[in-house]
Amino acid sequence: MSDLHAVLWDMDGTLLDSEKLWDIPLYEYAEKLGGVLTLETRERMVGSNVPTTMRLLFADVGIEPTEADMADGAAWISRRTEEVFRAGLPWRPGAQEALKAVRASGVPMALVTSTERSLTEVALDTIGRNLFDVTVCGDEVDGLNKPLPEPYLKAARLLGVDAARCVAIEDSPTGVAAAVAAGCTVLVVPCDVEVPTGERRVFRDSLVGVDSEVLRAL
């Protein structure tokens, strides 16, 4: 994509190896409810937003939750996840260098994450707020979360660019589906779950060596 308008980065599993950290509160809360979170359900949560994750979790342990149950569970998981995040967030291979390289080229950048703003702010202490022109979080898209295109479309609108001239960088089927639906070309770097092949998807094993020239060549 020689006419590259912007680069739109996912966070969990793409920049940060944080999906494994999310395991801690999710499995703990399932046990707190008297159940066990299955691997199949955990994999379905990857890349999703908090309401979807909570619905999957309650269903997996066989509980029909009230709205209050959903809210209490989300609040508990958010508090516990913040504790885990503050203890240290590991980078995905090559991610820190790739961010800096693309930023240095002058191409506009956005962070587009399903994680809510409060936890994203904790993560940005590690990633660096100054690297992004725009950040779009999971609680800022009026419920139109990934795999719907709105998170990526909103980032493009805020940047004043055409989503079809952007490269999104993603790791999960949910995130990739959102970026493709928005019209982006997607650099797919799978982390914890496999991503199916499809239109406008270029696969790479890691972000090592990625810079603006690599992205323009997609």
Automatic annotation (TrEMBL):
<dbReference type="InterPro" id="IPR023214">
    <property type="entry name" value="HAD_sf"/>
</dbReference>
<protein>
    <submittedName>
        <fullName>Haloacid dehalogenase</fullName>
    </submittedName>
</protein>
<dbReference type="InterPro" id="IPR036412">
    <property type="entry name" value="HAD-like_sf"/>
</dbReference>
<dbReference type="Pfam" id="PF00702">
    <property type="entry name" value="Hydrolase"/>
</dbReference>
<dbReference type="InterPro" id="IPR023198">
    <property type="entry name" value="PGP-like_dom2"/>
</dbReference>
<dbReference type="InterPro" id="IPR006439">
    <property type="entry name" value="HAD-SF_hydro_IA"/>
</dbReference>
